[in-house]
Amino acid sequence: MTLIKSISGIRGTIGGKVSENLTPIDAVKFASAYGTWLKQRREKENYRVVVGRDARISGEMIQNLVMNTLVGLGIHVIDLGLSTTPTVEVAVPMEHADGGIILTASHNPKQWNALKLLNEKGEFLDAENGAKILEIADSDSMLFSDVDSLGKITKNEAYIDMHIDEVLKMNLVNRKAIENANFKVVVDGVNSTGGIAIPLLLDRLGVHGVKLFCEPNGHFPHNPEPLKEHLTDLSEAVVKERADFGIVVDPDVDRLAFIDENGEMFGEEYTLVACADYVLSKTPGNTVSNMSSTRALRDITEKHHGQYQASAVGEVNVVNLMKKTNAVIGGEGNGGIIYPELHYGRDALVGVALFLSLLAEKKMSVSELKASYPIYYMSKKKIQLTPQLDVDTILDTMESNYNHENISTIDGVKIDFADSWVHLRKSNTEPIIRIYTEAPSQESANNLADRFIAEIKAVANI
């Protein structure tokens, strides 16, 4: 079916032909390339890599292949077992490791899996190092260890608890206010590791958690991308349980979205807006999100007298701009919160703790909180790519057609109109063109997206 090789990792569907899918041979090949890259970076006696996985059905198979490949390269492995992406990111520096690998395909359906690759800081690789690994994978430069120099695997399944410990130590987590608020929250863990981590965090914070799809068996009960159309069960459960709100995460727990007390979406775009509002009220500063994210973050940042900047899409790009601008918080409009006090990675556990603190201090409902923010509406659509579709030509044509508008070509083509915008880009993780729009009403956002889809089809003759 599909194998996508990019700087952010190797992602594909399980089964099928080698080099066309994520087969065992492909898993070994790219784990070998990553391990070789690590050893080429620094000559030392011992190398250590942290490895964890979400609850996908293929996860144990792929993890065992990856770990034993690293062992064959003479690299010691710290096996976190069932884990989350941010937990692995936190564990890498705590273990003084040389890198980390997370086996997860994020929001993709269960037939997908991936190797997400981290450096010694527990952060995603930049383009240069990602390209080096892909180059090594296509070469014959991988050299494996002799029998006396093999690595070892050490299990440590305590890291979700240790990650929660670190979240609770954050200065802005108001544990007393949260406990006094006596919140009741429904959690949709999409039958992956969020079903382990989020209820544990809520329990530590004194929040009454109601579990929904929290069995980490990898059988996702709905499309695992946390969008409104996939969350009807959660919406109904929040109303039935008379809960204060609902929480949903993606399978590897780096994306976070909320449902209000009426069963309505808070909006994944507003996860970052709310958390930033809270952080900026305590520690004024700058913010960053990617250019496919809502303008509401800019508005909230300026309200707190900070500066907002937009990066290209991709966590590593957001992180790099956050470091450059000394941003106090940042992330992505897909519900990804990056809070540098703990680490430079999207972290749903951090987002939950900050959101609860905000809600407890403001003493208002989730729907009231949403109403207090600048309201924009987004449309997120896509066009499936085919071999006949020349994406670069399409984007060049769209840029030329709108060269009288405010245009950015940092990542695809973003066109800023006075009261709306459209962002056209080729996805790094799926064979699609994404068409994101934002406008003052849902109808306007949808119409703008449909207009550009029609224009793209006209350019492509499809």
TrEMBL record:
GO terms for molecular function: phosphoglucosamine mutase activity. It comes from the Bacteria. Keywords: Isomerase, Magnesium, Metal-binding, Phosphoprotein. Coiled coil: none annotated. Residues 8-140, 171-263, 270-372 form the Alpha-D-phosphohexomutase alpha/beta/alpha domain. It holds the Pfam family PGM_PMM_I. Residues 404-453 form the Alpha-D-phosphohexomutase C-terminal domain. InterPro entries: A-D-PHexomutase_a/b/a-I (IPR005844), A-D-PHexomutase_a/b/a-I/II/III (IPR016055), A-D-PHexomutase_a/b/a-II (IPR005845), A-D-PHexomutase_a/b/a-III (IPR005846), A-D-PHexomutase_C (IPR005843), A-D-PHexomutase_C_sf (IPR036900), A-D-PHexomutase_CS (IPR016066), Alpha-D-phosphohexomutase_SF (IPR005841). The keyword Chloroplast does not apply. Its EC number is 5.4.2.10. Its cofactor is Mg(2+). This is Phosphoglucosamine mutase. It comes from Microcosmobacter mediterraneus. The lineage of its organism: Bacteria, Pseudomonadati, Bacteroidota, Flavobacteriia, Flavobacteriales.
